Amino acid sequence: MTTTIGYTLAGVIAAGIIFIGARFIVAPRVAAAGYGVSAELDERSVRAYLSVKGIRDMASGLFVIILLAAGATHLLGWIMLAATIIPVGDTAIVLASGGSKSIAWGVHGLTAAVMLVTTALLLTS
């Protein structure tokens, strides 16, 4: 049962991060606002960084899907644990940049917490 819940949560996280990554490519202004820090999209370099973030987010989601498909439960758990640094870092970046505290904690902080629960479920299976 814990494996099924862990796999389900990992799958939802993977789908979510792929969606978020695609949004940084297709709708960077909306994605930046959803991240918690506004971006000056008139600057080509800013748009480039947002595109880089989008591609990396999509790849991160695909890594999780590959591990799910392979049935690598414990490896997936360790990868999820390591990847938790991403939303923890995002929380710190948004807060340090004067971004939205509600997004920092409510989106990024909550994501980190869900990832830790997912990790526990996968590693105790």
UniProtKB/TrEMBL annotation:
TM ranges: 6-26, 62-83, 103-123
Pfam family, one: DUF4267
UniProt keyword annotation of Transmembrane helix present: yes
Family matches, as InterPro entries: DUF4267 (IPR025363)
Name of the protein in question: Membrane protein
Keywords associated with the record: Membrane, Transmembrane, Transmembrane helix
Protein species of origin: Mycobacterium bourgelatii
